Amino acid sequence: MKPTVRNFVIVGLTSEGKRFRPSDWAERLCGIMSQFGSDHKMRYSPYVQPGPDENGAKTVRVDARLYDIEPLAYHFLLNFAKDNDLQLRFPDEETPPSDDEGKPENARQEKGSP
């Protein structure tokens, strides 16, 4: 059975609200999924993008379509969040589904979600 696959955002805050270090962690993480273009410049994958959240915390946005291309990369990113006790958000859903398959044990929801 295929695990539940959805868009998610890794937030650079631990479950206790501490900022994750080093400060360039999001760019480094996205860098391993990047490639060089014909102009010899590095380009982030369209499926894994760094950026800030509404409060200025560093984030990595992961598109669920990555799973169809490279499921190991998708799971690597989920496990990175779990291993480093980072918050996860699921922007396409008000609440994550009850089926937790493929979801790190300590995944966090956005504030205000049940």
In brief:
Helices cover 22% and strands 22% of the residues. It is α+β, with helices and mostly antiparallel strands.
Which key phrases capture this entry?
single chain; about 110 residues; four-stranded antiparallel β-sheet; two-stranded antiparallel ribbon; 3 helices
Written account of the structure:
- It comes from Tepidiphilus thermophilus.
- Residues 100-114 have a biased composition (Basic and acidic residues).
- This is DUF3579 domain-containing protein.
- InterPro entries: DUF3579.
- Residues 88-114 are annotated as: Disordered.
- This protein is of the alpha+beta class and 114 residues long.
- It has a single domain (8-89), classed as Uncharacterised protein PF12112 family, DUF3579 (Alpha-Beta Plaits), CATH 3.30.70.
- It contains three helices and six strands; from the N terminus they run βαββββααβ.
- It has helices at residues 25-31, 65-69, 71-83, and strands at residues 8-14, 35-36, 42-43, 48-52, 58-62, 86-89.
- It has a four-stranded antiparallel beta sheet, covered by helices on one side. Strands 2-3 form a two-stranded antiparallel ribbon.
- Strand 4 (48-52) and strand 5 (58-62) form a beta hairpin.
- The longest helix is centred in the C-terminal third of the chain and has 13 residues, at 71-83.
- The chain is globular.
- The model is unreliable at 101-114 (pLDDT under 50).
**How much is the average pLDDT?**
85
Count of extended strands: 6
CATH architecture: 2-Layer Sandwich
Gyration radius, to the nearest Å?
14 Å
User: Within the largest sheet, what's the order of strands?
Assistant: 4-5-1-6
